[in-house]
Amino acid sequence: MLLRHQLQKSEPLNYHVQSLDGGANADNRVLFPGALNSEFTNNLEFLRPSRNKAISTFRILDQYGHVLDKERGVDTTDEEALVLYQHMVSTGEEGISVGSASALNPTDPIFCQYREAGVFMQRGFTLDQFMAQLFSNTDDTGRGRNMPVHYGSRELHIRTVSSTLATQLPHAAGAAYALKLQNQQNPDVEPRVAVTYFGEGAASEGDFHAALNIAATRQAPCIFICRNNGYAISTPTSDQYRGDGIASRGAGYGIDTLRVDGNDIFAVRTATREARRLALTDGGKPVLIEMMAYRVGHHSTSDDSYAYRQKVEVEDWKRRDNPITRLRKWMEERDLWNEDKERELRSQLRKDVLAAFDRGEKKKKPKIRHAFDDVWENITDEQRAHIQELKDIVTRYPKEYDVSQYEGGLDSLDELLQKKG
């Protein structure tokens, strides 16, 4: 009985102890610490996922733009809807990125993958900033060091996109744990959550599992947003997993989970807002949202998706249901939008994009010195030798190395060479 008395002292572990004498009042639960709330059974029955119903998908609008629950409504003003629509008008999964970003606190740190241009736009990233990164010109905050579409903004609290698939997930989990400590130590400051985006293909990476597990065990306020658009480059979901999507994995890690219709921006906003509230409950906890969508475009400019899917399938999704069409139907029903406004918006956006393209293309490249900056606090002797060697080569072969397109030309290397170590 002494053992029983000692075990009953461990109430913070939240499990009941089975009577050691096996009496009539025994609590029929497992003592094993690996499954605290499991009950004993004498039935031999395997858990078979194929027999269970699939996780339902939350939505507010049907594909015709009609509100399904009049009492719930869309929880969005007409003015907000118009702004959201203007940010969405392009091609892809805009309802997910624009909708979720609009429901977050502007100071919540975000860790994107590479399909979240809508997140940047919603937070105020300008067309000129997009072009600066794409052209790697002198205005690029990344100083020309990254591949295209690797945006980032310290001011907007969005971490720079990484090339490596899924590495942003453990980064977000770690940031969320740091935020949890900050939230506890600074109760007078508005608490924040970390948010990260990824595709269902990235969920096949080990980083996905590591991130969810550490966030769950440390109860970190992190919102994991999965864009399940049906294809990871040339791999359909049928070749990626046999389980019920990505949402089922959240439950396996003990994480509050929801599946949402990603083509319904109002459902995305409502779900994200509630996920943020949950993430800050009881000191913090992770939340997983699986946003369902369809990738109507090719994976990249080098991808021909018609090699692994039928063109009619893509065209059907374009015509039948997408986030832009659904929101537009809702706005037209409320007399907020019409064909003339649509034509005017798309014409103006095209002009704005082309003008920003023209400005970005004409600007010079960043200074050559940035190839050596930000490695060490002071220039090392080895770096100094490398800088001098580069300068000598460029000076010796001016026709092969045209540095006139770089701001400051070779003078920027002299700036470093003259800098004290």
UniProtKB/TrEMBL annotation:
Residues 88-368 form the Dehydrogenase E1 component domain. It catalyses: N(6)-[(R)-lipoyl]-L-lysyl-[protein] + 3-methyl-2-oxobutanoate + H(+) = N(6)-[(R)-S(8)-2-methylpropanoyldihydrolipoyl]-L-lysyl-[protein] + CO2. Its cofactor is thiamine diphosphate. The keyword Hydrolase does not apply. Its EC number is 1.2.4.4. Keywords: Oxidoreductase, Thiamine pyrophosphate. Gene3D superfamilies: 3.40.50.970. PANTHER family: 2-OXOISOVALERATE DEHYDROGENASE SUBUNIT ALPHA, MITOCHONDRIAL (PTHR43380). The branched-chain alpha-keto dehydrogenase complex catalyzes the overall conversion of alpha-keto acids to acyl-CoA and CO(2). It contains multiple copies of three enzymatic components: branched-chain alpha-keto acid decarboxylase (E1), lipoamide acyltransferase (E2) and lipoamide dehydrogenase (E3). Belongs to the BCKDHA family. This is 2-oxoisovalerate dehydrogenase subunit alpha. The lineage of its organism: Eukaryota, Fungi, Dikarya, Ascomycota, Pezizomycotina.
